[in-house]
Structure formats: structure tokens, C-alpha cells
Amino acid sequence: MAGGHQSLEQRSDALKIDFTCFGQRDTAGGALQKPNAESLLQVLDAPGYDSSVAVEPSASCVEGAIFGNGDEGSQTFNIGQRRQLLHKSQIYTAIYRHSTKLLQRSHCKHSNLPKGMHMQAITLNGPSLDLLTRVELPDPLPPGHGQVLVRMHAASLNFIDLAVAFGKYPGISFPLVPIADGVGEIIAIGDDVLDLAVGDRVALHPKTIWFAGRGTIEKANATRGVSRPGSLIEIATVDAGSVVKVAEHLSWEAAATVPIAATTAWNALVCADVGPGSTVVFLGTGGVSIFGLQLAKARGARAIVTSSSDEKLELARKLGADETINYNESPDWDLQVLKLTSGLGADLVLDTVGTATFTRSLSAARYGGVIFTIGFVTGTNLQIDLMPIIVKALRIQGNNTGSAEDFGKVMQAIKAARIDPVVAETFSVGDVAEAYHAQSNGPVGKLAVRLDW
């Protein structure tokens, strides 16, 4: 690690904890509960989630996948209470009570699970990057009913991962396996798993128990890398209903960037019913904004992107942005949006920043427009004038990623439109602390971590 600190490899012997919970079952009710396999069918059978969409899509295929209907999946952001990770003593108790029962109930139909292995993982043992530690974990148990084992290949950072690592996200219990987004290859499947097989390339939905439909606080708060084990682990045990097959044209690193950012952007576009003739404003050039730009252009919309960097704005134009605004040169960027839209304003403003931009977002939106607010980079407390919201009949929509069904739909849209995620840089797992620092500097698009143990 930078700054003279010990590397993760040097720390590998410093903390070898029996974190069996990190390889066990990941449900809201506890380690032994198994979901109904119908949850996976709900995702695969949902409107707009068509596994037959061609790699080279016709216009109708693109319309079916990119304009997929169904629930918006947008939920008001609320952190709530989080289930604490088991302490070491509790883990041994859980193993003693349940391991025999687990193995009796688990009928692993197909498996490439190695024997006698020990998994590698990285744990975050407190709110500091200095507390990232490489550890060795016990063999994973066979998958239970409705579950799969996934050998992880890549992960990707989001702002929420920074908030957790820097102690800015409330309700966190350490140690934990960090980073929400990840992808890998299925190496074992349990009973009642349909349409998945050993060898399938899958992305893990960050919301571990939110399979489809409207969310709840419990579903939204069960998040990988926050209240559930994350992606910096060799093998993950997950519910089959929470994985989505990866589009064939995506590399491991590119696929890892999709779950949170693309699903959030997708829900914003669905929320505002974005299509031909719509105008969308994207604040900044981070992961959500760039995915939003790519998806909006695939849906035929007009896109306006703001940034403080001409270099980043040039990249946005190469990705299809119709207009760009440097907000350092034009601090009143909302007035520029109104000028570019002949005084009407935007149908959708995707606000990834927070308090510093919210008032101007209200100004930039058209009558009946949507402010899709997901950012808290500049804080969460804000005093605003309600009159623009009332007079312009604006809709203020929060979001906490969405369901696995939403994730599946955006993956199909990415496949249909042949969208290539913008991966600014890829890091080795041994350099994961550097990846966190790079994320804090605001890259264009996304950063990936290659899990090359």
C-alpha cells in the first residue's frame, strides 16, 4: 500500500479469522433460510427480460430490451438498521448448531468445487484503508436449496464503498468483506435452481434479498459490502435469485461495473419515461452519469452533461452527449440548460451530487419533470424553497439501486445495444487500497478490481 504502510500480502498472517459467515447463506432471516426458486423465474420472465435478445439487435429487439416495462424499482433512500455481522465466537456456535443440518439439506446437483481448499478474502476491520487485511477463510460449504457458489473474478467500486471505508456510512459493523459490485463464474448449484448452470458467467446483485417488485427497508438494507459480505472474496455463496447472467460481449472487469451504477441509471430513465424527444441532464461524469448517458442515447433521448473538466466533457461528447456544460465556466448551469431547451427545461435531471446542486436541479427541470436524486457527496441536510416543486409540479425521486429484476433488465439493454461500460482503470486485488484512493478522485466512468489472488 502507498504511504509506507504494509501491503495486504504482508498482513496476510496478521489476521486469519474463521469468518465462516462470509461463505454461508445470505438471507434476511438467517443462515439457513432458503428462498423459493420462483424468485429467479420472476426475474427471467419479467417484461423486458428476454434471454433471446440478439447480440446484433434489430430495432424491435432494442426497443423491447431498452424500453423494458415493469416496476420502476425506485425507492426512497433510507439507511435504517443493519444486521450486525457475527463475531468470531458466534460463528463457531453457528457452525456447531447448523453445519450438519446444512449438509443434509444441501443436494449439490453440479459442482466444480475444489476439495480441501482455503479461500482468500480481504476484510475491512474498521473505517480506514489501513485496516484492509488479506485473510484466509475455511472451505465454503456446498450451496443450499436455491443457492449457487460463485468464484469471483472482478469487483468494482462505488461511492457507497468509499462511505463505508471512510466511516461516513452509519450502522456499519466491522470486520466485513467490502465492495458491493462483483462478478464471477458459477462453480456449484443447489437444488431448485433453474436456468443456471456450472460455468455460467454471472453478476451478483448488491441487494441480496430484493429479487423483484417493490422494495422494503429490509430488502434495501441487505446490501453486499455493507451489511452482508461483499465481493473481495474468492468464492461467494448467494441466492440464485440475486444473480444475473452477464452479457456475452463484456469482460469480467466491464461486467463488474454494471450492478449499482447501471441499475440506478436505468431506474432513473424508467422513472421519467425517457425516450425519443426527452431531454436528460446528467451531473458529472461518474459511473451512474456515464451509464445514464449511454442508456439514454440508446433510448433515443437528448443528453446534456455537466462537469468541471473539459477533458471529461470531451469524453462525454464521444459517448454521445448532445451538449456539455463546464460548470466552472458557467456556475449557473441551470440557466444554460433552460437556454439549450428554449426555456422548457429537462424532463429528467439525474442529480448524483446532493445538497450543492439540488436547488439548481429544480430550476433546470421542466414542468412535470423528475429530479432523480441519489447523491450525498456534498452532504444530506438541505433547506430549500418548496415553491418550484409545487408550481412546476416536479417529482422528486430517491433511489436505493433497485431489485435483481431491474438489474436483469438493464443487463439485457446493455446486451441489446452493445453498450461498452467505461472502465477508467483496473487494479490488482493487491492494490485495492489504491483503487479506493482513485475512486475518491472522481474518475470518468468506473474503476475495476481484478481478483487475481
Can you walk me through this structure?
The chain is α/β, with parallel strands linked by helices. The protein has two domains: 273 residues, Alpha-Beta Complex (Quinone Oxidoreductase, Chain A, domain 1), CATH 3.90.180.10; 137 residues, Rossmann fold, CATH 3.40.50.720. Helices cover 29% and strands 20% of the residues. It contains 14 helices and 16 strands. The strands form three sheets. Strands 1, 4, 5, 6, 7, 8, 15 and 16 form an eight-stranded mixed beta sheet that branches. It has a six-stranded parallel beta sheet with strand order 11-10-9-12-13-14, with helices on both faces. A two-stranded antiparallel ribbon has the order 2-3. It is globular, with a radius of gyration of 22 Å. The two termini are 16 Å apart.
Keywords:
453 residues; Quinone Oxidoreductase, Chain A, domain 1; Rossmann fold; 2 domains; 14 helices; 16 strands; 20% strand; disordered N terminus
SSE layout:
Elements: H1 38-44, H2 59-66, H3 88-105, E1 110-111, E2 119-124, E3 132-137, E4 147-156, H4 159-165, E5 181-189, E6 201-204, H5 217-221, E7 235-239, E8 243-245, H6 252-256, H7 259-271, E9 279-283, H8 287-298, E10 302-307, H9 310-318, E11 323-326, H10 333-340, E12 346-351, H11 355-364, E13 365-373, H12 387-391, E14 395-398, H13 404-417, E15 423-428, H14 432-440, E16 446-450
Parallel strand pairs: 9-10, 9-12, 10-11, 12-13, 13-14, 15-16
Antiparallel strand pairs: 1-5, 2-3, 4-5, 4-7, 4-16, 5-6, 6-8
Helix pairs in contact: 2-13, 7-8, 7-13, 10-11
